[in-house]
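Module 6 notes. Inverse folding takes a fixed backbone as the condition and produces residue identities as the prediction. Think of it as a translation problem where the source language is geometry and the target language is the twenty amino acids. Below is one complete input and output pair. Work through it position by position during the lab.
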């Protein structure tokens, strides 16, 4: 259960980073 929460958090973190990178570009 904890592993699933960590995976979801990592995916959200990556999506946010991509979104911010696209906005800066």
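Target side of the pair, the amino acids:
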């Amino acid at each position: 259960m904890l592993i699933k929460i960590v995976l979801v958090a990592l995916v959200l973190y990556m999506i946010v980073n991509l979104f911010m990178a696209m906005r800066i570009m």
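Reference fact for the lab report: The two ends are 37 Å apart (CA to CA).
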